[in-house]
Amino acid sequence: MSAPPPFVHLHCHTDYSLLDGACETKRLMQTVAELGMPAVAMTDHGNMFGAVEFYNAAKEQGINPIIGCEAYTTPLGQKDRSNARAYNHLVLLCQDQDGYRNLIKLVSSGYLDGFYNKPRIDKDLLARHSKGIIALSACLKGDIAEHLMEDKYAEAKRLAYEYQDIFGKENFFLELQNHGLDQDKKILPMLYRMSRETGMPLVATNDAHYLKRDDARAHEIMLCIQTGKTMSDPSRMKWDSPDFYLKSRDEMLQIFGEVEEALDRTWDIAQRCQVKLEKVADPFPRFDIPQPHSIDSYFEFVAREGFERRRPRLDAMAKAGKLRQPIELYYERLDREIKMIQQMK
Q: Residue 25: beta bridge partners?
């Protein structure tokens, strides 16, 4: 009897999900290798800050890096500022170079055009940049899950069809999660039903925010840091389950044994995701340098010239007693920072 396909984590938060994800990249790859998994996804909240580090660390371990993001989507329109809490989650995975470029555009637009409490994107933007991207319906914060929680099955189904129209039939999946929460138990039967009625494929994930089950308490402390609370505060943000870790295939099979194909499908998706990042030989921009300067001397010249333009304002502030430090300390800091940048070769 042949061995079953490997399970691949397609929903994973590294430490670039700032003060929320606790999967440090190198330790993540070591854990994935120990579990015998050939691939893993990075789906940090609203950003791709760790993409290059994640990619390189995975390649060092012989693991296929799946670059993605758990995006913040808003139903109001990206530039609407009427409700800072009006956003949902959607998992986006890069299938190829087109997908990588499109995800960069989406994430960048979230910060540059749609930032309001979170870096938000909308479905119009998704539709324009969907090529090469595989989408999963996300966690309990996904809009499909939220509508199911509110017993709005028909609207949840309509949203699923909308995503299928945006990404294509082969590229949108209904995401199954079960961390032992009451909310999971409520919506899972409805997701099974939706898959039967629509033919949309199911994929099983675990919302991995830390590596081991024993890391749950450390993660709680990190959430306290994020929210400015203490562990003794009964109103602090707290997860009601210690199951948000990187589970083995056997652990996932115990949860989703009745839909084993949803586990196997993670490997199918992983094999489709083949982004390649080439090392940039010279990442710094090139500037025309006037004679007789070198790039270092011209940088220093421009920096000091800019400081001197600001010197009258600093002198006026010092005379009024509003300058925080003596002017000499500003010169020392300028010297130190010029030397530091000149060493960045």
A: none
Query: Hey, what long-range contacts does 96-100 have (CB within 8 A, 24 or more apart)?
Result: 96/132, 96/273, 96/274, 96/275, 97/132, 97/275, 97/276, 98/131, 98/132, 99/131, 99/132, 99/133, 99/134, 99/275, 100/67, 100/132, 100/275, 100/277
Which architecture characterizes domain 25-272 according to CATH?
A: Alpha-Beta Barrel (3.20)
- At 1 the pLDDT is 64
Burial class (CB in 10 A: 0-12, 13-18, 19+), 340: exposed
Q: What is the pTM of this model?
A: 0.84
Domain extents in the chain: 25-272, 295-342
Task: Read off the tokens for 230.
Answer: 């203490």
Question: 4 preceded by cis ω (within 30°)?
Answer: no
Q: Which of 9, 76, 13 is nearest to 45 (CA)?
A: 13
Q: Is pLDDT above 80 for 2? A: no
Q: Are strands 202-204 and 172-176 parallel, antiparallel or unpaired?
A: parallel
Q: Tokens at residue 338, please? A: 């010029």
What amino acid occupies position 319? K
Cβ neighbors of 222 (< 8 A, separation 6 or more) are 19, 20, 22
Residue that wins the pLDDT comparison between 288 and 300: 300
The mean pLDDT value of the chain amounts to 94
Nearest to 107, CA basis, from 78, 64, 138, 136: 78
Output the pLDDT for position 218: 87
